[in-house]
Structure formats: C-alpha cells, structure tokens
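Hi support team,

I submitted a single chain yesterday and got back a structure, but I'm not sure I'm reading the token output correctly. Could someone confirm the output below corresponds to the sequence I sent? I've pasted both exactly as they appear in my results page.

Thanks,
R.
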Amino acid sequence: MMTLVRGGVNRSRVRAKAPAGSVATGERHISGAGRRSRLLLGAALTVIAVTIVTAGAAVADRLPQLIVFDDPSGSIATYATRDSVDMVGPFFQDLGKNGRTCASCHVPATDWSITPKEVQARFVATGGTDPMFRTNDGADAPTADVSTPMARRAAYSLLLTKALIRIGLPVPPNAEFELVAVDDPYHYASSRELSLYRRTLPATNLAFLSTVLWDGRSTTPGQSLSDDLAAQADSANRTHAQADVPLTAAQRRQIAAFEEGIFTAQRRDAEAGQLDAASADGGPVNLAHQSYYPGINDPFGRNPTGAPFQPQSMTLFGAWAGVGRESGGETAAARRTIARGEHIFDTKPITITGIAGLNDLTHQTSIVGTCTTCHDTPNVGNHSAALFVNTGVSDAARRTPDLPLYTLHCESGPLAGTTIQTTDPGRALITGRCADIGEFKVPILRGLPARPPYFHNGSAATLDAVVDFYDRRFRIGLASGEGADLVAFLRSL
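Hi R., thanks for writing in. Yes, this is the structure output for that exact sequence:
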C-alpha cells in the first residue's frame, strides 16, 4: 500500500507525536494490489503516477511532502524538505539513450534503491525488456546473450537474485598490485575491466554522506557534497544510461538538490506501531531535522569542533525502554525490544581486530568499541568522516559460485610480496594501494527494512544474517535474545 500525506509539516513542532497507529489527516490510502501492478512497469515515476490515476485522483507533477509505502516490517516513508516531491525533474527524465532514468534503479518504495523482488516483478511483466535490463551493467557480462526471454533470465541472473549492478573498473595505472589470475564464471573480466557486482545505494538521505559510492570514487577532496553529487549524476547518466552528451550544469544541480532534499526512514513497525509515538524519534520527519556535519561524533579525532566521541550515537528509542511495564501488551513489549536493541547497538563491547582501514588507521591491533565505532553519525548510522573498512565480506573464503575471484599480487608498498584473493578489490581500484583491497564505505542505516539484501554484494539476505555475520566475525558473544533485539532495532530504522 502507498499512502500520500497531503500538505506540509509544521517545522517548529517536528517533535510532536501522533498516537500509535494513527493516520495523519489528509492521507490517501491506495490498494496494495494496484501499486504492485504498477511496480511491474519499472520506472518510479510511472509507478506512482499511474497508481494515483487508478485511485481516481488527478496526476500531478509534484507529489505530497510525505509518501508512505508498505514494506515487510511495516511501512517506510519519504519526507521532502520542500513542500512537495518533484516527479518531473531530471532525476525522473530519460536523458541517455537506453531508456533509463535515475529512478530506474532508485525506486521510492524500496528506499530509493532496488530489491530482487521488485526487479523480478519487472522482468515478469516485460520479459526482461524493461530499461532496468541492459547489458552494459545489468547483465552478468556485457557480452551475454539476451535474444530470448530464457536467455535474458540467465544473462541477468545476479540482478534478478541479488539486485546487483555490474561495475566495470580497470586496475589503475601505477597500482601497487598486479592482477595475476581471474576466475570469472561469466568469462569477461580482465585487468582492463574487472567486473564488480554491487548493490545500488539509496538515492535518499544523501545530505548525511561523507563519501559518495561504495568505493568513494565520486568524492573529490575539497569539493562540496553538492558538487560531488552533481558530478556523480553526470557520470551515472553516461555509464548507466549510456548518454552521449553530458548533463547540463542546471540538470546536475537539480538532481543533486533533489537527492539532498529527500529523507527516508521506517515510519511504522508492524508490532511496535508508529515509530515517532510515545516520545520516540523515529520516522523521516525527525530524520530530516537531525543535526549533522562531516566529522560529527567521529571517534578518531576528526571532529572539527573537537567534541569527544559519544558511543551512544543512536538515541531514537530510549524513551521506550520502560514503556508499558505496568499494563503490558504486545505493542509495549515490541517497543521495549526495539529500545533494548538500540542499547545493545550503542553499548555492547566489540573487540575489533584485523580490520583493514580501522586497525591500521588507529595503529592499534585491537580496539574495544561498539557498533557505533563505525556507525557513528548520530541517528543515521554511517560514518561521519570518510572511512573505508574491510570486514571480510569480499574475502575468498566467503566467495559464492556466482561471483568472480581475483588474485592480486602486491608488487610494492608495505604489503609487497603478498598475494590476496578477493571477489571485489573495492577501494583499492581507486587508490591503487594493496592496503585498501576489500575496503568499502560504511553505509547509511536508515531505511534498511525496505532494501534487502545487504552488504555491497548482497551476500546477507536478511537483517538476521547481517547480525549473525558480525557476531561471528567479531566473536561478540550475543546472549540469548540479544540478536533478535538488535534485528528489531535495525528494522525500525
């Protein structure tokens, strides 16, 4: 179901709360079946506009300030800091030559990203001819046969099963390492162009970014975030939409402004109810007014104000810690579970060892931290200053048969003589440094429930799998029930 909330929000009272389960005045409810049928058409503009027509409402070029979609955990919402959401700007326009728009891969209902379920629906509806399905980056290899529906299903296997887009990058000139072996199940990758299969990052909540893209290749030192996003929009239009001409300066600015002006978060939990009820601070409106600057709450001395790091960086649901103990009830119990999960996220000790990008950054072989050591941005969950870490997700030991394996030999630098195998060299293909192999940025956590699977390569199908990975990787030793509490918290973001 999609809900449209008409009108704006009184910004002087953004902390005002509605009762659990309440519906804001002016919301319009549209049948889930109608919305799902439109999702099959692909582009998000078509999805929303046609759904409104089906419901008998007039189609507008702009949608209300708050748009709500059902998701597996309850509902997710996007809030625009302007009075409405512009649905006809360049973000939604076909500006290339293969039929794609930005919204082809950044769908509002899935946290402005894509999911296997949504991609599969488009494939079924169009036989794999939706603009999403293009060989330049949607296929497992650009040389794949797409002449028939059966061939297309095979060619787009990683897109269909894990919502992965193929990124082609070469080994950079003067890199410290050499690509000495490639095991590519799709028989395409080489040092000229490695095939890297990555999840589409959300095109929302970008005002909190410290780094653009998984490997940071669209971040230019000394340049503003707005300029980085504008440049990234042009690069994406040329590579993903295969445009022959660059975007105009005005189009770049409009796309960047649109991305910086929308905020998305879980709005309602199926068990706990409204996430901004009973003095909690969940939901996208509170998120849009969250204080942020690059380096805020950084634990490694990079906060420009000099303020010390506060491990309790997630403070959305503290008010729920003791709610309803007198009267009980399922809603109150679910809220206490979320509050416990947030407390675990903020305080559970983690011994961090062997994490490239973190232990070497601090020159400490062992760091005692918490989840917020990496996820330090208050109530957002990414890292507030540029930080690329290797948690082992792309290690050879975790390789699945549908991903390539690259063998890299370090010829120079501190790791000279070392051979490393990985499914994705990550940041190293930007810097050329062996020490950066397998490193990726810490992503924003808000909106998680609507965009499975997780990690850069989609290797964790659920949030339970994410929590299990970190529990095993760091030997956290989560007690009985703590994992479930953590998952409940992550589902509330």
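A quick pointer for reading it: Residues 208 and 378 are 10 Å apart (CA to CA). Let us know if anything else looks off.

Best,
Support desk
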